[in-house]
Every structure is written in C-alpha cells, then in structure tokens.
Design a protein that fits this description.
Blueprint: H1 2-17, H2 26-30, E1 32-35, E2 40-42, H3 43-48, E3 55-60, H4 65-80, E4 85-90, H5 95-104, E5 110-113, H6 122-127, E6 134-138, E7 144-149, H7 155-162
Parallel strand pairs: 3-4, 4-5
Antiparallel strand pairs: 1-2, 1-5, 3-6, 6-7
C-alpha cells in the first residue's frame, strides 16, 4: 500500500516539475500587466505586438539579488542577439521600486509589471513560479521554445535564441 502511494506521489511531482508547455494558457494570456506608464495590457496584447519576432522573457524583481546579479548576463545576450525582443516582467508589488531599478540599471527592453507579485495570478500560476529570475524564449510564431531557465548563463537560452537564426 505504501509503495503504491509513494509511486503515485513520485509520478505527480515528476510530472509537475518536468512540464514544458509549448504555448501559453488562456488564463496566462488574460493576465493584466502594466507598463512603466501604468497603462494596463493583457499579456496576450503584449505578445501579439511581437508576433513574428523572437522574444526573450525575463521574470524578475527589484528585490531579487539573483535577478540583479544576472542582469549583466542578460545585457550580454542583448548585444549578442540584437534582433530579439527582450521583455522584462517584474513581479514587484512595490511599483516604485521596480521603476527605480529599471532606470538606475538602465535596463533596455520592454517593461511590464505583474502587480499581484510572484505568489498570485494566472501568469505566475502557469509558470509554476517558485524561483526568480526565470527566463523563457518564445519563437516568432508564439511557441515557447524554452520554458524554464533560472540562470542567464544557461546554455539552453543561447541555443533557443539561435534557433532559426
């Protein structure tokens, strides 16, 4: 009996941890996000504006040490892949802190905020977000090429960005 329960639990956790969706869910697409001017958009509207372009998504926060330490590596990627759109999604609940760090660190790219933070909301639920930074790569057709990277030096990021280059 205990072996069966253990096996069921193991299968459940493995399936959750290795899930690699190739498209965003409807709920994730409906999530309201806000640009630096506090104008709301749905995630779908933002992604549709980049249709036909490869998109690198950086989910981060101004209070996240690992996120800030990874930013120079992201800037290197920007130089190496100038044709790629760099979309920064902040999970800061303190909007002023987010905006201040964007300007202070001169982070170039498209910037939006997920005001519910990293623990709530359909987008973070879709990502099963438990750690930031979190990097994704989306191809020109809107398919997710890379679903989960937590280090900007991850070789899988460069591989995904080079696809169909």
């Amino acid at each position: 009996m205990f072996k069966k329960i253990g096996l069921i639990i193991l299968v459940f956790f493995i399936s959750c941890n290795f899930e690699k969706p190739t498209v965003f869910s409807k709920k994730a697409f409906q999530e309201k996000i806000y640009n630096l001017d506090d104008i709301p958009f749905t995630f779908r509207e933002v992604m549709n504006s980049y249709k036909g372009e490869k998109v690198f998504i950086d989910v981060w926060a101004s209070w996240c040490r690992d996120c800030l330490e990874g930013m120079p590596k992201v800037k290197e990627l920007q130089k190496e892949f100038p044709e790629v759109v760099f979309l920064f999604l902040s999970v800061d609940e303190r909007v002023d802190s987010w905006k201040r760090v964007v300007h202070r660190m001169d982070i170039i790219g498209a910037h939006y905020n997920l005001p519910k933070g990293m623990k709530a909301g359909d987008f973070v639920d879709f990502l099963n977000l438990s750690w930031i930074p979190r990097y994704l790569v989306v191809d020109e057709k809107g398919n997710i090429l890379l679903f989960k990277a937590t280090n900007a030096s991850d070789k899988n990021i460069r591989s995904a960005l080079k696809t169909n280059r």
